[in-house]
Amino acid sequence: MKTFVAILFLSLLSACGVKSINKVGYGKILDNAVSENCFEIKFSELQKETNYQLSVVVEKAAGKITFYDLTIDGTKTDETPEVFTPKSFKLSKTFMASVIKECSA
Fold first, then answer.
1. How far lies 80's CA from each of 8, 36, 43, 46, in Å?
2. pTM score, two decimals?
3. Gap between the Cα atoms of 22 and 20, Å rounded
4. Whole-Å CA distances, 68 to 47, 55, 103
């Protein structure tokens, strides 16, 4: 009976046009604070590399970035969640590695 109800519920959702939202946020507490100027350059480069809309919120201490929250918005693309999720995760990991490697003082 539970299986039948679950299938019925999913059918109802799809009939109503429920669409998943391709928008995720990745936060990172940095072990070593990074240069704000370098971080901004890396973020600008990332924006040029992708069609996703990006935004970032940072926390600073002593003029250096100690935490960032990167939001990747793919709602204006036609990608399915199965494509968007791994692509956005890879994009965030590439950005993080670049920031840590090139912006650590």
1. 23, 34, 25, 22
2. 0.76
3. 6
4. 15, 10, 13
Are residues 105 and 61 in contact, defined by beta-carbon separation less than 8 angstroms?
A: no
Pairing of strands 64-73, 53-61: antiparallel
CA–CA separation, 70 and 78 (whole Å): 21
Domain 20-103 belongs to what topology? Alpha-Beta Plaits (3.30.70)
Secondary structure in 3-state letters for 51-72 = CCEEEEEEEEECCEEEEEEEEE
CA distance 11 to 96: 39
Q: Mean pLDDT in runs of 10 for the chain (105 residues)?
A: 50 54 86 94 95 94 93 90 90 94 85
